[in-house]
């Protein structure tokens, strides 16, 4: 289940309420504090395809100019979730 950290660049910061409402209509997102024209959000999706589709839906919201993918974590699917990465085990000698 990918958890994505996204940074949304707004065309005009004055319409933050409408954009936040539109985001929450599309998905169950954690919305951070607006900083000038940048709005950070975190979203949890069921798979990579759903994450890409969500990205397209968010980009289609009027007033959204651009979306940067800041981070993606695969909770429960990563080697780190099972006790560490293979690289960290190999370098412990």
Radius of gyration, whole Å: 16 Å
Q: How many runs of DSSP E, i.e. beta strands?
A: 4
Order of helices and strands: EHEEHEH
| Helix content estimate | 25-40%
Mean pLDDT: 84
Which word captures the global form? globular
Major sheet description: 4 strands, antiparallel
Overall CATH class:
Alpha Beta
Tally of structural domains: 1
**Which spans of ≥5 residues are poorly predicted at pLDDT below 50?**
83-93
The CATH architecture can be given as: 2-Layer Sandwich
Keywords:
single chain, 93 residues, alpha+beta, Alpha-Beta Plaits, four-stranded antiparallel beta sheet, 4 strands, 31% strand
Write structural notes for this entry.
The model is unreliable at about 85-93 (pLDDT under 50). This protein is globular. It is of the alpha+beta class. A hairpin with a 6-residue loop joins strand 2 (about 30) and strand 3 (about 40-45). The protein has helices spanning about 15-25, 50-60, 85-90, and strands at about 1-10, 30, 40-45, 65-75. A four-stranded antiparallel beta sheet has the order 2-3-1-4, with helices on one face. The protein has a single domain (about 1-90), classed as Lrp/AsnC effector binding domain/regulation of amino acid metabolism (RAM) domain (Alpha-Beta Plaits), CATH 3.30.70.920.
Quick overview:
This protein is an alpha+beta fold and 93 residues long.
């Amino acid at each position: 289940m990918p958890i994505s950290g996204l940074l949304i660049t707004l065309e005009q910061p004055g319409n933050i309420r409408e954009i936040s409402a539109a985001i929450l209509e599309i998905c169950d997102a954690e919305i951070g504090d607006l900083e000038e024209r940048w709005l950070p959000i975190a979203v949890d999706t069921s798979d990579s395809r759903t994450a890409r589709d969500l990205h397209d839906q968010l980009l289609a919201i009027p007033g959204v100019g651009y979306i940067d993918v800041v981070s993606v974590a695969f909770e429960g699917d990563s080697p780190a979730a099972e006790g560490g990465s293979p690289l960290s085990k190999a370098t412990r000698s």
